[in-house]
From TrEMBL:
UniProt protein name: Prophage Lp4 protein 7
Residue span, Primase C-terminal domain: 51-117
Pfam families in the record: PriCT_1 (PF08708)
InterPro entries xrefs: PriCT_1
SMART domains: PriCT_1
Length: 126
């Protein structure tokens, strides 16, 4: 809901009629403007490579990308010291320019606040 609008979902009553899910109908065409936005987003997230074919993490994407990598490892139960060491390897090999070590420590600690997959609570307190 935004700008004074409202949400209509199955189970809602609109003008005295029950709102239900329509089944077995063809999908509506996707508006061209939405496809353009999706394509622009896809291009913006494209991974760059150097002349030798190695992945390059550009300056504007370093923190976000390294945090995503750390969170992916954390889901498998990787602890903070191992997260930090993994981030150092990726940072030194793929980030241009590389982040300072204190930034990697911050990323590792932030990612370690999340519990590994399968545990009850999604995030722990700092």
């Amino acid at each position: 809901r935004c700008n004074g609008g409202y949400v209509v979902a199955p189970g809602s009553v609109v003008e005295g009629k029950l709102y239900e899910i329509a089944r077995n109908l063809p999908l509506a065409p996707v508006p061209a403007s939405l496809l353009e936005r999706i394509e622009a987003h896809r291009k913006a997230r494209r991974i760059e490579h150097d002349t030798e074919g190695r992945m390059v993490i550009e300056a504007r994407r370093r923190n976000e990308t390294l945090f995503q990598i750390a969170c992916a490892l954390r889901r498998f139960g990787v602890d903070t010291p191992a997260l930090l060491e993994s981030l150092r390897v990726v940072n030194n090999k793929h980030c241009h320019p590389a982040l300072a070590d204190f930034e990697l420590q911050t990323i590792a600690v932030s990612a370690a606040r999340y519990r590994p997959a399968g545990e009850q609570t999604r995030r722990t307190n700092p």
